[in-house]
Amino acid sequence: MEAATSTVAWPLLLLSLVASLLFLLRRSHGRINSLITRNSSSRARRLPPGPPALLFLAKFLALRRSIFDLTPLLRDLHAHHGPVISLRLLFGGTLVNFLVAEIGRDEAVWTAAREFRPERFLDGGEGCDVDITGSKEIKMMPFGAGRRMCPGYALGMRHAEYLVARMVRELEWLPAAEGEVVDMAETVDFTTVMKHPLRARIVPRN
């Protein structure tokens, strides 16, 4: 539950901080407004099927995980057979920890890797075709990779996309009031969470 809450809380904080982010989200890939449709019989809102429907939002959430990473380390790995990592042969029995948070901030892979640039995932951007599962190449590992990849990533991302899309569609996220300082302090609990609960100024959209 903590990981799910943090996955959504950090993007909502960014909506309040980055004025252009709402614009980018609302106009990307068919627009968020058109992604949430009404079922005429139940009046329930649902996301249409089709994997490309929320591609930009999925990558935005993955980018958020690279900057405010929930799990700085992956589960440790015992190198039983002396594998080669970064052209170095490891002795059998070596304990390996992967700094997954740093993989998504590699300056050799991303331009200004430590800056929040969601537009890099738009068409024509350097990350427009990035694979967040790591099955083709690894430029970020928000869910691990290979046999150790999170088995519930697709379901988790789908729910996170849906919730953030609803928040973007229904609400205006206002900047902090004059004189207010946005607290972006984080602390490590079971995952990396906000040190203080999110407080945002929001109003319904017309």
UniProtKB/TrEMBL annotation:
Topological type in the membrane: Single-pass membrane protein
**SUPFAM superfamilies reported for this sequence:** Cytochrome P450
A GO MF term: heme binding
Q: Name one GO cellular component term.
A: membrane
Keywords per UniProt: Heme, Iron, Membrane, Metal-binding, Monooxygenase, Oxidoreductase, Transmembrane, Transmembrane helix
The main location is membrane
| InterPro entries listed in its UniProt record | Cyt_P450, Cyt_P450_CS, Cyt_P450_sf, Plant_metabolite_P450s
Cellular location(s): Membrane
Its family? Belongs to the cytochrome P450 family.
The protein's name: Cytochrome P450 89A2-like
